[in-house]
Design brief:
Immunoglobulin-like, 10 strands, mainly beta
Protein backbone atom coordinates (compact mmCIF):
# COMPACT_ATOMS: atom_id res chain seq x y z
CA UNK A 1 0.00 0.00 0.00
CA UNK A 2 1.37 3.43 -0.95
CA UNK A 3 0.52 6.56 1.04
CA UNK A 4 0.58 10.07 -0.34
CA UNK A 5 2.86 12.51 1.53
CA UNK A 6 1.13 14.36 4.32
CA UNK A 7 0.10 17.86 3.38
CA UNK A 8 0.35 20.69 5.87
CA UNK A 9 -3.04 21.85 7.02
CA UNK A 10 -3.92 25.33 5.82
CA UNK A 11 -4.31 27.73 8.78
CA UNK A 12 -7.80 29.08 9.40
CA UNK A 13 -8.24 32.60 7.97
CA UNK A 14 -8.28 35.60 10.27
CA UNK A 15 -8.72 39.36 10.15
CA UNK A 16 -7.55 42.16 12.42
CA UNK A 17 -9.82 45.13 13.02
CA UNK A 18 -8.44 48.62 13.63
CA UNK A 19 -10.17 51.61 15.19
CA UNK A 20 -8.04 54.74 15.06
CA UNK A 21 -8.60 57.45 17.70
CA UNK A 22 -7.13 60.16 15.41
CA UNK A 23 -6.47 59.96 11.67
CA UNK A 24 -4.64 63.34 11.72
CA UNK A 25 -2.44 63.34 14.84
CA UNK A 26 0.08 66.09 15.58
CA UNK A 27 3.80 65.29 15.58
CA UNK A 28 4.68 63.68 18.92
CA UNK A 29 1.02 63.34 19.97
CA UNK A 30 -0.11 59.89 21.14
CA UNK A 31 -3.12 58.36 19.44
CA UNK A 32 -4.64 54.92 20.03
CA UNK A 33 -5.23 51.93 17.81
CA UNK A 34 -7.71 49.38 19.11
CA UNK A 35 -9.49 46.31 17.85
CA UNK A 36 -9.28 42.52 17.80
CA UNK A 37 -8.06 39.55 15.80
CA UNK A 38 -11.04 37.54 14.55
CA UNK A 39 -11.21 34.00 13.18
CA UNK A 40 -14.37 32.01 12.59
CA UNK A 41 -16.45 34.98 13.74
CA UNK A 42 -14.91 35.11 17.23
CA UNK A 43 -12.11 37.14 18.81
CA UNK A 44 -8.98 35.08 19.39
CA UNK A 45 -5.95 35.66 21.63
CA UNK A 46 -3.04 37.19 19.71
CA UNK A 47 0.03 39.38 19.78
CA UNK A 48 -0.52 42.64 17.90
CA UNK A 49 2.27 44.76 16.41
CA UNK A 50 2.19 48.14 14.66
CA UNK A 51 4.58 48.77 11.77
CA UNK A 52 5.24 51.76 9.53
CA UNK A 53 6.41 51.86 5.93
CA UNK A 54 9.91 53.36 5.70
CA UNK A 55 12.00 53.29 2.52
CA UNK A 56 9.81 50.56 1.05
CA UNK A 57 10.06 48.25 4.09
CA UNK A 58 7.71 47.61 7.01
CA UNK A 59 9.47 48.62 10.23
CA UNK A 60 8.25 47.79 13.74
CA UNK A 61 7.36 50.93 15.75
CA UNK A 62 9.26 50.87 19.03
CA UNK A 63 7.02 49.86 21.92
CA UNK A 64 3.99 49.26 19.67
CA UNK A 65 3.41 45.61 20.51
CA UNK A 66 0.87 44.11 22.88
CA UNK A 67 -0.83 40.84 23.72
CA UNK A 68 -4.62 40.96 23.61
CA UNK A 69 -6.42 41.28 26.95
CA UNK A 70 -8.89 38.84 28.57
CA UNK A 71 -11.59 39.96 26.14
CA UNK A 72 -9.14 39.29 23.25
CA UNK A 73 -8.90 43.00 22.39
CA UNK A 74 -5.90 45.29 22.00
CA UNK A 75 -5.40 49.03 22.65
CA UNK A 76 -1.97 50.32 21.59
CA UNK A 77 -0.66 53.87 21.95
CA UNK A 78 1.32 55.18 18.97
CA UNK A 79 3.46 58.32 18.63
CA UNK A 80 4.74 59.42 15.22
CA UNK A 81 7.49 62.01 14.85
CA UNK A 82 7.56 62.65 11.09
CA UNK A 83 5.06 64.92 9.34
CA UNK A 84 3.07 63.87 6.30
CA UNK A 85 1.10 60.86 5.17
CA UNK A 86 2.24 57.70 7.00
CA UNK A 87 1.30 54.18 6.11
CA UNK A 88 0.72 51.96 9.14
CA UNK A 89 0.12 48.23 9.35
CA UNK A 90 -1.37 46.33 12.27
CA UNK A 91 -0.23 42.69 12.33
CA UNK A 92 -2.15 40.22 14.49
CA UNK A 93 -0.37 36.93 15.20
CA UNK A 94 -2.81 34.49 16.83
CA UNK A 95 -1.54 32.40 19.75
CA UNK A 96 -2.74 29.28 17.91
CA UNK A 97 -0.54 28.16 14.99
CA UNK A 98 -3.70 26.79 13.34
CA UNK A 99 -4.90 30.38 12.67
CA UNK A 100 -3.28 32.56 9.99
CA UNK A 101 -1.57 35.88 10.71
CA UNK A 102 -3.80 38.88 9.87
CA UNK A 103 -2.75 42.30 8.53
CA UNK A 104 -4.59 45.59 8.15
CA UNK A 105 -2.94 48.55 6.39
CA UNK A 106 -4.13 52.15 6.59
CA UNK A 107 -2.86 55.72 6.42
CA UNK A 108 -2.72 58.64 8.86
CA UNK A 109 -1.65 62.20 8.13
CA UNK A 110 0.70 63.64 10.75
CA UNK A 111 0.68 67.44 11.02
Amino acid sequence: MVFAPAQAATPAPSTVTVHNSDSTPAVGQEFRLSGAVISGGVRVPATVRVKTLQNGKWVQLRGAVEATNRQNRYNIGVVLNLRGKRMLRVVGTPKSASIAVARNTFAVTVH
